[in-house]
Task: inverse folding
């Protein structure tokens, strides 16, 4: 008996130790925005203007370099002068990043690219409205006449967060890192292998030669490559980089930094605004990056808990992805009182494409008539009406809602007569005693679709409709990994998928014939079309955006004619809920990013609003609910064609 | 006794090898391994599934989509060990076959017999190709023999390639459970923070159910057939037939403060600022967070234990020694509490060994509902992500714990019941 | 052999005894009212659930059209055009009924509850999230399917699944456990190791592998779960057989040259039935719970099968539509509770010990 109590005693002690262990040190919460560098390297007065030092802007034109000076009237798209710095923005993410690195293995997730945008900078940036190149780390750039060689001149004011200057060598080292296969990120070698090794021309000038002509090269090298510090990377091999910087932050040039004490494994992480960000006084940066801290709290795979946390105020904003939730669940008390604001924000963010993709390589979808029949039998209008509260628009293009969509594509409406006619033409007109279509050989029209559980409600109505017309679509739940493997090894018949849209579409990766018979490429349907191939090649070397739009529209039209997918619906706006304490520019989201990520850079905490919200909530008073629909960009573009491209 | 335990230990050996080999093979059969997982992560880019076209992810540019370069794929294969046959992989995992690590690639251009390479931390070496292999020289010209070098299959481009690497014996037998594919950390490091969750819930759940069930069982036994007995039976069985996680989910919505009443926190194991709290604050905070998950965790566990306890007491009360005790003139209280109870805890004592099992215990659904990072989620996610080292680590630890648990049970049993002897 | 008849007589006598024992137990079971009524309710409900197509269905029971009588429930698919209806596939009998009201001589008899478990918003007249009311007793779900109808069809599936699963795993578990206990020695040792190894099989992985090859259906799922479910029973049976083996009647049977098979199944097993029967209801509960869990996680029956796990999971996602949560949880809870009561009563009825407090 005694011993038993002893056992229990030990166990109790254990519980206590475990739950209270971890030391008694008390930390005060840290002061918010911080200085990261102990000493900053003073301005470089030695390097001559010709070598990129101070005074370069005077000789730039003679040397053939260009830049972009943001006109006064466009500055409004780079933040709002009303912005106030300070405060904490809390947001929920559904995954704790496997690494805080922004390159290399496991750094391909949206969380990492968000971090890259906050902590690091590229050589150039894209204008948020016109998508022209604007300076970032590089103040000037030059493109050779044959468009095969680029030069960048790095701003001599640019400093790493540890105070070291940014130099041309950093660019070379960054490229080297991407080309190191031991960072275990094979797509990097694909993208950056399009260039020769960059060359240090002088301390601040770096040049790079492309292996192949493409308008995309400048974009990839200039805008999408975040520059990393040479003085840290120089002694590291790829695998050491992976290991050492797993959860350690390398100095960056960006407006934010991440402190190691803010990384709480699997629970949360945050970034902190830097007081000594080198470009903080530039007009385009003055009113962006306003929050002192942006905190990312992890809630794994539990959207309903995420929503509850928003309602409780533990998260500052919430984007609503499901129509049902938007219509049915967002009329809670705080919304009625106006404490939580509700917006539908329209932008030019590409809506992406989604639907049921067919495998053209095998029965039954190698037959164009069957493809069209399936498209005519998809009751998307009815589903939109009955299940999605008419929240969506019908998609008839690979690029719906964007300028790339070909307006002349057929608007495929639910049309059973046409479908039945096509099925009959293809040999499917008789029904057996169970009501299934059979062909002359007695084969039943039966096929299988693998889906993850979360999309079940979008597929069963289609299944029921097909059943009415005698087609047996058997649904099978498959886990994501298996599904993807089957998709990539072309071991599927029909597949449900959505793709995010790109501002600069990349049709070749999913449409080119040479990828159709290769496994593990994105030409999922197996499209082989010589005309598309030709247009893709042409697209790559067309430097005029206007011409490119025309080419993509042509591709879109051919694609639509082949009809390798039954498209579903799309939505040209974002649905947002947020606690009414923020200030934001009138457009709320920037034109092409068009989603919550704009909040990080453009919004701020408005102290007056915050106080008013507190007061209203304490007193139980209402605040005014703002206009639901924000159509700033649509209106602006309809008023002027300056920004129309 | 010693021989008994020795025998138990020896019997573990075939089980251990049988189980690990079986699971190792099963893992290879599952579609979509870590290699495909990596490619997927790279290529998926903006893919998602939703009711209205694409979700996030897709940005200005996207590099993925086309086929990936062969050398890079080789590198990935080597990283995950898939360049070796399965038997060798198993032996490496065991730690009886040398594991290659710190690999570097060498490329000899056409006609070159010499190449310089940064081996890391700025240590440059020169590798020369000779008739009988490769030789590595340090910067000062001395021969470097820390590394091994072997040729690789030449690519289509005709460039000769070689692999530089070190080896070590490192596997399960040397105490190395490997590195998780998804967390990129040693398996034990991934598991460590979760032990506090499993131990906390496991042991306090265990204690709560014992604290409730033993007195309840006794009370029910004493009032067998009374309305109290009936009523409490109905209650524990109702609790038994409610799925804990679903009940928890409903409670969280009702009491979490998001929609209805703000009584408890919205999930989580502890507050985020837990480390800044005072000791007392920590205890309160921990308990405050634990209430709802604990209800979900224990609600189903009362029925069996209560009934077991009750039946055991009833059985003992009709034994002869009870008659003797009563005839000695002892009070009913004393008879029940000292004699009956002691004999009644024997079957329960055999459960004690299971306590050790809580180290790895977890419920995926409850952890999911309450956003707690325990073993349930870890295990489930490891399966979905094909994180083999975690799955194998689980297996090994579970097999060991079961052995220790069984032995503990036996000891506990021998302690409470002097009649039991092990041979 | 001259003494064989005696053994048979003994066996016959034993059978007699066990029969009367069974009868006694049944009487005792009946006397435990809670369990007995639960048993009656559950069995009745389960039997009725096999006739659900007659009671709850969107297919008509009888249709009279142009002088001809049809029985769609039994005949299966009948094209709507047969009845002059302008629909693509099968007739919509609810609409047909409305239409026939004004036509002389034509009529439709629908089942008492005229909604099927599969029809959703794509069938004319169905709406999602309808609140419980006269039409849809328990409302409709997020794709407009009738919750009541799905719930009851799901009841049959859940219970059948659990019972078949339990029987299958008992058959295997009892036989192997019995052999282990009876033969002991090396056989026991090796089988024990085998079981230990088998128990470490990662269930989800096996599930993923199998479902990547074939589409899981009702019977396949039973087979897979049985692969993992039989182990528990072996422990009880093994211990039981170890104990019984040492008893005199076994020694007697062996000395009379009875075959092992006969001794195991004719002599020892009847004496070891108590744990089997006692645990049966709880194993059934376990089976229902496993199916719910699998369906909840998306490893269970393929859509659009009306399964409780699927209903619970969409219910929890639509918690504001309270009927979608309450209905499946309530049904699950009620069923489990009934089984628990039955199990309790069985256990008590099979317990040979008569408890009396001494004093």
Result:
């Amino acid at each position: 008996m005694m011993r038993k109590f002893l056992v229990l005693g030990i166990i109790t002690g254990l519980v206590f130790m475990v739950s209270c262990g971890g030391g008694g040190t008390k930390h005060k919460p840290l002061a918010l925005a911080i200085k990261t560098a102990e000493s900053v390297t003073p301005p470089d007065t030695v390097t001559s203007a010709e070598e990129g030092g101070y005074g370069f802007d005077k000789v730039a034109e003679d040397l053939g370099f260009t830049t972009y000076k943001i006109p006064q009237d466009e500055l409004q798209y780079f933040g709002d002068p009303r912005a106030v710095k300070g405060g904490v923005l809390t947001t929920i993410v559904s995954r704790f990043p496997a690494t805080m690195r922004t390159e290399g293995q496991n750094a391909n997730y949206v969380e990492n690219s968000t971090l890259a945008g906050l902590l690091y900078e590229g050589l150039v940036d894209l204008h948020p409205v016109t998508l022209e190149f604007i300076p970032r780390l590089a103040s000037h750039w030059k493109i050779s006449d044959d468009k095969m060689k680029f030069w960048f001149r790095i701003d001599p004011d640019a400093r790493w967060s540890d105070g070291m200057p940014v130099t041309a060598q950093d660019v070379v080292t960054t490229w080297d890192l991407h080309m190191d296969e031991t960072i275990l990120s094979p797509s990097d070698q694909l993208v950056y292998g399009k260039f020769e090794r960059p060359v240090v021309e002088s301390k601040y000038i770096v040049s790079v030669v492309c292996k192949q002509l493409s308008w995309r090269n400048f974009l990839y090298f200039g805008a999408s490559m975040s520059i990393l510090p040479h003085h840290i990377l120089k002694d590291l091999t790829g695998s050491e980089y992976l290991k050492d910087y797993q959860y350690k932050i390398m100095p960056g040039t960006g407006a934010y930094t991440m402190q190691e004490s803010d990384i709480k494994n699997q629970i949360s992480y945050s970034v902190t605004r830097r007081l000594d960000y080198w470009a903080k006084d530039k007009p385009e940066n003055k009113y962006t990056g306003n929050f002192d801290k942006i905190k990312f709290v992890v809630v794994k795979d539990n959207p309903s808990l995420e929503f509850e946390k928003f309602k409780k105020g533990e998260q500052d904003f919430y984007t609503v992805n499901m129509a049902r939730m938007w219509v049915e669940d967002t009329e809670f008390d705080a919304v009625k009182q106006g404490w939580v604001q509700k917006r539908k924000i329209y932008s030019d963010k590409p809506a992406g494409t989604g639907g049921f993709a067919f495998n053209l390589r095998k029965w039954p979808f190698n037959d164009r008539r069957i493809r069209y029949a399936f498209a005519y039998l998809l009751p998307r209008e009815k589903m939109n009406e009955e299940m999605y509260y008419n929240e969506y628009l019908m998609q008839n293009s690979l690029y719906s809602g964007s300028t790339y969509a070909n307006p002349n594509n057929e608007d495929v409406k639910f049309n059973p007569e046409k479908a039945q006619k096509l099925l009959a033409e293809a040999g499917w007109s008789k029904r057996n005693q169970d009501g299934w279509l059979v062909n002359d050989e007695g084969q039943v029209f039966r096929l299988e679709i693998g889906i993850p559980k979360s999309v079940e409600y979008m597929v069963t109505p289609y299944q029921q409709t097909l059943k009415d017309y005698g087609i047996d679509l058997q649904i099978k739940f498959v886990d994501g990994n298996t599904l993807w493997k089957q998709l990539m090894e072309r071991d599927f018949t029909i597949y449900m998928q959505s793709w995010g849209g790109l501002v600069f579409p990349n049709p070749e990766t999913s449409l080119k014939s040479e990828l159709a018979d290769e496994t593990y490429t994105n030409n999922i349907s197996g499209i082989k079309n010589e005309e598309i191939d030709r247009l893709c090649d042409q697209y790559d070397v067309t430097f005029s955006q206007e011409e490119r739009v025309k080419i993509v529209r042509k591709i879109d039209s051919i694609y639509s004619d082949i009809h390798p997918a039954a498209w579903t619906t799309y939505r040209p706006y974002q649905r947002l809920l947020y606690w009414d304490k923020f200030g934001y520019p009138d457009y709320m989201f920037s034109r092409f990013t068009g989603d919550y990520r704009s909040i990080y850079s453009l919004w701020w905490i408005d102290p007056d609003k915050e106080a008013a919200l507190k007061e209203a909530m304490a007193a139980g008073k209402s605040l005014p609910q703002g206009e639901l629909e924000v159509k700033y960009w649509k209106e602006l573009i309809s008023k002027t064609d300056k920004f129309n491209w | 006794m010693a021989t008994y335990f020795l025998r138990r230990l020896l019997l573990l050996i075939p089980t251990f090898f049988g189980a690990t080999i079986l699971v190792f093979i099963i893992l290879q059969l599952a579609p979509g391994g870590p290699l495909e997982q990596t490619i997927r992560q790279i290529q998926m880019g903006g893919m998602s599934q939703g009711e209205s076209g694409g979700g996030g992810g897709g940005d200005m540019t996207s590099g993925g989509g086309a086929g990936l370069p062969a050398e890079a794929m080789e590198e990935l294969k080597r990283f995950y060990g898939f360049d070796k046959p399965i038997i060798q992989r198993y032996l490496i995992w065991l730690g009886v076959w040398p594991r290659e690590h710190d690999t570097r690639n060498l490329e000899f251009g056409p006609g070159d017999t010499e190449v310089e390479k940064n081996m890391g931390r700025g240590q440059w070496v020169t590798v020369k190709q000779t008739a009988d292999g490769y030789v590595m020289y340090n910067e000062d010209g001395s021969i470097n023999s820390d590394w091994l070098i072997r040729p690789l299959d030449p690519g289509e481009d005709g460039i000769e390639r070689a692999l530089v690497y070190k080896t070590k014996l490192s596997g399960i037998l040397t105490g190395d459970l490997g590195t998780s594919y998804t967390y990129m950390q040693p398996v034990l490091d991934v598991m460590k923070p979760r032990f506090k969750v499993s131990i906390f819930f496991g042991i306090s759940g265990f204690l709560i159910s014992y604290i409730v069930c033993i007195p309840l069982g006794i009370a029910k036994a004493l009032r067998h057939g009374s309305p109290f007995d009936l009523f409490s039976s109905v209650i524990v069985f109702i609790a038994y037939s409610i799925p804990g996680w679903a009940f928890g989910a409903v409670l969280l919505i009702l009491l979490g403060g998001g929609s209805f009443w703000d009584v408890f926190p919205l999930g989580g194991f502890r507050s985020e600022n837990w480390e800044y709290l005072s000791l007392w604050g920590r205890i309160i905070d921990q308990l405050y967070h634990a209430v709802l998950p604990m209800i979900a965790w224990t609600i189903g566990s009362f029925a069996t234990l209560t009934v077991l306890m009750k039946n055991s007491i009833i059985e003992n009360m009709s034994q002869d020694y009870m008659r003797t005790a009563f005839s000695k003139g002892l009070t009913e209280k004393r008879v029940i509490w000292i004699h009956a109870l002691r004999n009644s805890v024997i079957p329960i004592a055999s459960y004690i060994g299971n306590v050790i099992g809580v180290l790895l215990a977890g419920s995926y659904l409850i952890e999911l509902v309450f956003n707690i990072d325990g073993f349930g989620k870890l295990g489930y996610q490891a399966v979905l992500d094909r994180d083999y080292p975690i799955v194998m680590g689980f297996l090994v630890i579970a097999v060991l714990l079961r052995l220790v648990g069984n032995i503990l049970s036996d000891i506990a049993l021998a302690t409470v019941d002097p009649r039991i002897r092990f041979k | 052999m001259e003494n064989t008849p005696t053994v048979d007589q003994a066996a016959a006598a034993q059978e007699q005894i066990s029969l009367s024992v069974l009868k006694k137990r049944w009487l005792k079971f009946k006397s435990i009212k809670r369990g007995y009524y639960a048993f009656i309710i559950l069995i009745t409900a389960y039997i009725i659930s096999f006739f659900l197509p007659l009671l709850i269905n969107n297919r008509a029971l009888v249709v009279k059209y142009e002088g001809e009588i049809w029985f769609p429930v039994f005949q299966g698919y009948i094209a709507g055009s047969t009845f002059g209806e302008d629909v693509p596939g099968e007739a919509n009998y609810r609409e047909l009924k409305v239409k026939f009201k004004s036509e002389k001589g034509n009529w439709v008899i629908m089942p008492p509850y005229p909604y099927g478990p599969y029809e959703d918003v794509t069938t004319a007249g169905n709406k999602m999230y309808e609140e419980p009311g006269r039409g849809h007793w328990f409302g409709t779900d997020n794709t407009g399917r009738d919750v009541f109808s799905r719930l009851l069809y799901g009841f049959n599936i859940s219970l059948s699944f659990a019972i078949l699963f339990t029987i299958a795993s008992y058959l295997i578990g009892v036989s192997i456990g019995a052999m282990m206990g009876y033969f002991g020695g090396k056989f026991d040792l090796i089988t024990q190791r085998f079981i230990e190894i088998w128990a470490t099989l990662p269930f989800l992985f096996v599930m993923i592998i199998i479902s990547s090859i074939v589409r899981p259906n009702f019977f396949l799922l039973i087979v897979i779960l049985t692969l993992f479910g039989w182990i528990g029973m072996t422990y009880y049976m093994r211990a039981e057989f170890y104990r019984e083996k040492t008893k005199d009647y076994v020694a007697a049977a062996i000395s009379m040259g009875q075959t092992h098979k006969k001794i195991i199944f004719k002599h020892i097993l009847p004496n070891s039935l108590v744990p089997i029967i006692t645990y049966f209801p709880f194993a059934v509960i376990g089976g229902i719970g496993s199916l719910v869990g699998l369906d909840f996680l998306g490893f269970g029956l393929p859509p659009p099968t009306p399964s409780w796990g699927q209903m619970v999971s969409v219910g929890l996602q639509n918690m504001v539509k309270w009927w979608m949560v309450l209905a499946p949880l309530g049904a699950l809870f009620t069923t489990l509770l009934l089984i628990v009561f039955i199990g309790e009563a069985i256990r008590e009825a099979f317990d040979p010990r008569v408890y009396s407090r001494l004093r």
Notes: Confidence is low (pLDDT under 50) at residues 1-5 of chain C. The longest strand of chain C covers residues 62-65. The domain at 148-349 of chain C is CATH 1.10.3720.10 (MetI-like fold).
